[in-house]
Design a protein that fits this description.
Elements (H helix, E strand, L loop, with lengths): L2 E6 L7 H9 L4 E4 L8 E5 L2 E5 L12 E4 L4 E2 L1 H13 L7 E4 L3 E2 L3 H13 L11 H9 L6 H4 L2 H21 L8 H15 L3 E2 L1 H10 L4 E4 L23 H8 L6 E9 L2 E3 L12 H9 L12 E3 L1 E2 H11 L3 E5 L9 E10 L2 E3 L6 H6 L1 E8 L16 H14 L3 E5 L7 E3 L11 E2 L1
Parallel strand pairs: 1-10, 1-11, 2-5, 2-10, 5-7, 6-8, 7-9, 11-15, 14-16, 15-19
Antiparallel strand pairs: 3-4, 12-13, 16-17, 16-18, 18-21, 19-20
Helix pairs in contact: 3-4, 6-7
This protein binds guanosine-5'-diphosphate, 6-O-phosphoryl inosine monophosphate and magnesium ion.
């Protein structure tokens, strides 16, 4: 069973891009499964920093095929910009493939995203305004335009002339916004379609063939499980499936082919946009985490909200997705800390619970119950093997593994591709924190 899923275990930005790039070194294909240009995946190599939004993070590995899967929604303009940027940095796009079945983010989707957000007033989600929500809504409502339509001018004109009048009525009558001209829209999209055509393929049989030939496949998810449309903190979520099950669906890989589900977690919590974050720190500690972790959005530049590691949410995610192992990234951010806290339960209206309430308003009322662990107060940035990691840092990782119920297999100690430590040993003897 040659497929590995790399998925976010928290609220996104856990370091999935870096982990995908690392594991892609021994893979044949990396498939992006979900999301769109709302994602921002960073890979840092000796050629500098790469911020990928739509293109799989395997693209920097020359032997790896990079597939944009059917579950992704593609803004063709942003896709072409990203391709151009990579080409100017001498990254080959020869091994890039785009699924014909993927949906297109049309120019009116970001407009609608902005109008819908404005309409939500104080209930706004804080979306990335990339048009993802409206594009996925259109897909589910069967009003979408797919990549296969985009590259065929006849099909494109047919689909647009069918769908645009309704959106124009909504733009004019509901939002008092300007309608969109069909001819101008068609010309713009048709030109994108022509440029993208060489990269578009019937990728699903290609993936099935690769699986039959025991090729190693990585499925790269976007966002994180706590932003999942079904299992996240609804309605403060994204519009796609960010789970392991969703990864199979979006990538076109049968669940029976998956042998590893790697959950990526930061050593602490972050969230960008609105919605509950039970361990949020609105104080100097939160600021210190933000500054040390450079916690500003890869896509929007917004400061990320920060907090302690939430083991209740992590355990929920681990069980829901059948995580086989976890990566803990940004451990180095805690290097100077004297003590660390991990949330091991919630106090919800006086009741101690260890599960994540389904309703966001209840989760927002949950007060974290912490255990305190001592810090290591030395640098981990040059650690490359388990023995280089200080004992108290091992204890912190073991504590997390115990709480989450899944072994830690990889640890990030810096943004660079090289700054990663494999852990082969299972968590050490029981580590206890101090309940505070
Ligand atoms: P993704 O969306 O999950 O791919 O994550 P992002 O790229 O949006 O955000 C993760 C940020 O942390 C990026 O700036 C990475 O370069 C950086 N990063 C990843 N792993 C580590 C790590 O172990 N230590 C440090 N200091 N930075 C890291
Ligand atoms: P990666 O893949 C962090 C958040 C937005 C907002 C909510 C809905 O880099 O981890 P959307 O534009 O999807 O409708 O916004 O989801 N969000 C992310 N947060 N990382 C991401 O992607 C995100 N993609 C969406 O901030 O709260
Ligand atoms: Mg990101």
């Amino acid at each position: 069973m040659p497929a590995t899923i790399i998925m976010g275990g928290q609220w996104g930005d856990e370091g999935k891009g870096k982990l995908t790039d690392t594991l892609a070194a021994s893979a044949d294909i990396v498939i992006r499964a979900n999301g769109g240009a709302n994602a921002g995946h960073t890979v840092q190599t000796d050629q500098g920093v790469f911020k990928l939004h739509l293109i799989p993070s395997g693209i920097l590995n020359p032997r790896c095929l990079s597939v944009v899967g059917a579950g992704v929604v593609i803004d063709p303009k942003l896709m072409l910009e990203e391709m151009d940027q990579l080409a100017t940095r001498e990254v080959s796009l020869e091994r890039l493939r785009i699924s014909e079945r993927a949906h297109v983010v049309l120019p009116y989707h970001p407009i609608l995203d902005g109008l819908e957000e404005a309409e939500r007033l104080e209930g706004s989600i804080g979306t990335t305004l990339r048009g993802n929500g409206p594009a996925y809504s259109d897909k589910v409502s069967r009003r979408g335009v797919r990549v296969g339509d985009l590259i065929d001018s006849g099909a494109l004109r047919h689909r647009l002339s069918h769908e645009l009048p309704r959106w124009n009525r909504i733009l004019s009558n509901v939002y008092a916004a300007d309608p969109i001209d069909l001819d101008i829209l068609f010309e713009e999209l048709n030109s994108y379609g022509e440029r993208l055509r060489p990269f578009v393929a019937d990728t699903e049989p290609l993936i099935a063939d690769a699986l039959e030939n025991e090729k190693q496949i990585i499925i790269e998810c976007a966002q994180g499980a706590m932003l999942d449309i079904d299992y996240g903190t609804y309605p403060f979520v994204t519009s796609s499936s960010t789970t392991a099950a969703g990864a199979c669906q979006g990538a076109g890989v049968p669940p029976t082919q998956v042998e590893r589900v790697l959950g990526v977690f930061k050593a602490y919590s972050t969230r960008v946009g609105a919605g509950p974050l039970p361990t949020e720190l609105v104080d100097m500690t939160g600021d210190l985490i933000r500054e040390r972790g450079r916690e500003y959005g890869t896509t929007t530049g917004r400061p990320r909200r920060t907090g302690w590691f939430d083991a209740v949410a992590a355990r929920y995610v681990a069980r829901l997705n059948g995580l086989t192992d976890i990566a803990i990234t940004l451990l180095d951010v805690f290097d100077p800390f004297e003590t660390l806290r991990v949330c091991v339960a919630y106090d919800l209206d006086g009741e101690i619970i260890t599960t994540v309430p389904a309703r966001a308003d209840r989760l927002a009322r949950a007060r974290p119950v912490y255990e305190e662990i001592r810090g290591w107060q030395e640098s981990t940035v040059s650690a490359r093997q388990a023995a280089d990691i200080p004992r108290p840092a091992h204890d912190y990782l073991s504590f997390i593994a115990q709480q989450v119920g899944v072994q830690v297999s990889l640890v990030g100690v810096g943004p660079d591709r090289e700054q990663i430590v494999p852990l082969s040993a299972p968590p050490r003897a029981l580590v206890t924190g101090v309940r505070i």
